[in-house]
Specification:
38% of the residues lie in helices and 22% in strands. The protein is α+β, with helices and mostly antiparallel strands. The protein has a domain of 70 residues: Transcriptional coactivator/pterin dehydratase (Gyrase A, domain 2), CATH 3.30.1360.20. It has a four-stranded antiparallel beta sheet with strand order 3-4-6-5, covered by helices on one side. The chain has a two-stranded antiparallel sheet with strand order 1-2. Helix 2 packs across helix 3. The radius of gyration is 14 Å and the shape is globular.
């Protein structure tokens, strides 16, 4: 018997399309609240801050702003469309743009 993995958002199970989008992202996961999340680690604080600045410009351009946490060389980004109460295409698009930032 085959096993199925169900992924849930705040509004219920993700569709297959949503699961495919999540699997196509680099190191993003859904957290316990059903939000997209990824943690980045840098060598030093200035690199982390520079990365956050580049993400801020992308987010502002999209008018879609992440929740994030920074501690020295770590940045944790959480994406969720608050108006919809779930992860939406805007979150996936911002995650793709974040992944495209050359930060190494």
């Amino acid at each position: 018997m085959a096993r199925r993995l169900l992924i849930y958002s705040a509004k219920g199970p993700f569709t297959m399309s949503t699961a495919r989008q999540l699997s196509s992202l680099s190191n993003w996961k859904t957290n316990s609240q059903g939000k997209l999340e990824r943690e980045f680690t840098f060598n030093k604080f200035p690199e982390a801050f520079s990365f956050m600045t580049r993400v801020a410009f992308e987010a502002e351009h999209m008018n879609h702003h992440p929740d994030w946490f920074n501690s020295y060389n770590r940045v944790r980004i959480t994406l969720f469309t608050h108006d919809e109460g779930s992860v939406t295409e805007k979150d996936y698009e911002l995650a793709r743009r974040i992944d495209a930032i050359n930060w190494t």
